[in-house]
Amino acid sequence: MEQNNNVSDATIVITIDGPAGAGKSTVARLLAARLGFEFLDTGAMYRCVTLAALRAGIPLEDSQRVAELAEGLQIELDGDRVLLNGEDVSAEIRLPEVSANIGKIADNLAVRRHLTQLQRRWAQGKRVVTEGRDQGTEVFPDAACKFFLTASRQERARRRHRELLSRGIEITFEEVLEQQDRRDREDAARPIGALRPAPDAIQVDTDGHTLEEVTEILVRHVRQKLSQLDPDQPQPRQDRPTPPGQEDGA
Ligand code: DC
To answer: Can you give the pLDDT at residue 2?
Structure first.
């Protein structure tokens, strides 16, 4: 696939990939806030297409109809708000029904191509932290700094379970684990956009760390990487002091 990866000089992309529940989305948000960067949740785009296809009653296996539908959608990401054709679907796209059906949408190559273009266009001219499965491998292979977050299967399911309960979604731990295992298998088996670390990604295991600690580790890597790339480049804002004892990374 030809990469349309021409980004303007002002663009700085930091990618965070990893499996569901590794803490990517929280860490990506925190990192973006720390650096004064924008945050791009690419999973939300796949979720919007899934929701729209479910609502339209299109069989999710019908890749052509789903792709046509996807190309006609207006997806806007504004901070934590996700708008689908102008409607706020931020909560609805996280429902278990959407998660359970997203695999077929993420397997759809035409949908992936379309969303990849949207993601590159979204990042154009911006300083962004982007989060997903294929950001460092397929979408932004030339990103300034790439991370791959991992965590144990149990820890990831525990985090996800807590998060769903806190949103009032009733689900057992075993159900979360089962859904997670299925998505892991699907994410790993995908011929394009499969979950895998980019060769130049920094891998960070989040087990045993708070997500704030993980963010701190990433901030340090980013600052080091950006100063190596261009010593004259203005450094990202650091709006909180480094906690004592964490000056040397983890
Ligand atoms: O990050 P998330 O749980 O919201 O992502 C939901 C699904 O979307 C995930 O199981 C796979 C798919 N996805 C993808 O294929 N590529 C991305 N860049 C982001 C998400």
So the answer is: 39
